[in-house]
Amino acid sequence: PASKKANITYQIGNLYLDNIHNYEKALAAFVKVELLDPKGSLVKDARKNQVECLERLGRSRDAQEKLDQITSLKKKPEKGETIIAQIGERIITDRDFQKRLDQIPSYARDQFKTQAQKLEFLKQYIASELMYDTAKRKGLDKDPEIEQQVFETKKALIVQKLLKEEIQSQIKTGESDLELYFQAHKDDYRIKDRRHVRHILCKNRDSAFTIRNRILKGEDFEKTAKLESLDTESSGKGGDLGFITEDGYIPGIGKSEPFIKAVFKLKPNEISEPVQTDKGFHIIQLVELQTGRDVAYEEVKDRVNQDYTRMKQEEYYKQLIDRMLKAENVKIFDDKIDEIKE
């Protein structure tokens, strides 16, 4: 029976561990115990011994990962936690889910708000864990290329931590500094002229003129856009492109001088002649016009603070680099740079 084989293998493992001190073979034996009788009474001790073997082999990172794995298997939901998934004996709670979700950028988090989206994220989370386990069983965590990447990532994080400590301590931001910065960069914060527009994208000039004439004769622009526009992104919204500025990006179109020129010539509710871009021919309606204006410091105080801090960080970063290069007597041979092969 499996339990008997597991017991014999466990004794062999102990012999290698305690008497012969062959930790590789001891580790192999204890792993085999777990495979032979996964639900047996010896599994708990076999797992502990695996951690000890890894520690004695100098594989502290592997030992910690094994310990984390054992801990996760033993884990029980804390008060207020809800189990939302289970991988074998391992549980995943709503708190685990939220912790993983918090690790991704805030703009990406917005993709996972509905129940269906959260379910999809949970599936991705579980799949990632399963694939990680599979990769480890194949020994990919020992791959030299992976280990080098892990080292480089760790080094980058340590450098970032150092920079944060070195630079952040140097930045002293006062209200007067921010106000002076705002006055010097006032044009950067000015609200620009904006135009709220709708459009209908047509395949050629003739169809654009035909549709334009129908609208001029009384057809509703939004309804016509829903029926006729080839722009699938905006047609469902009646051709609405929102607000655009003279130097801004046009949704679904990008940068287009002919389009912008036509828009800024229009009066509210006026319909343009067909305008050609690389997407096709457009009929444009100006919905609303907003004239640009200067803003008060209080309106953009937070943004000014961010911009000022970023500027000071860049200044101190350059100073820090120069200081370190001089302190360590670094020599850079500029004339050799061109010799570096791509």
Automatic annotation (TrEMBL):
Pfam families noted in UniProt: Rotamase_2 (PF13145)
Domain (PpiC): residue spans on this chain: 192-288
GO molecular function: peptidyl-prolyl cis-trans isomerase activity
Alphabetically ordered keywords of this record: Isomerase, Rotamase
SUPFAM superfamilies, per database record: FKBP-like, TPR-like, Triger factor/SurA peptide-binding domain-like
Keyword Transmembrane: no
InterPro entries linked to this entry: PPIase_dom_sf (IPR046357), PPIase_PpiC (IPR000297), PrsA_foldase (IPR050245), TPR-like_helical_dom_sf (IPR011990), Trigger_fact/SurA_dom_sf (IPR027304)
Domain of life per record: Bacteria
Name of this chain's protein: PpiC domain-containing protein
Origin species: Candidatus Schekmanbacteria bacterium RBG_13_48_7
Lineage: Bacteria, Candidatus Schekmaniibacteriota
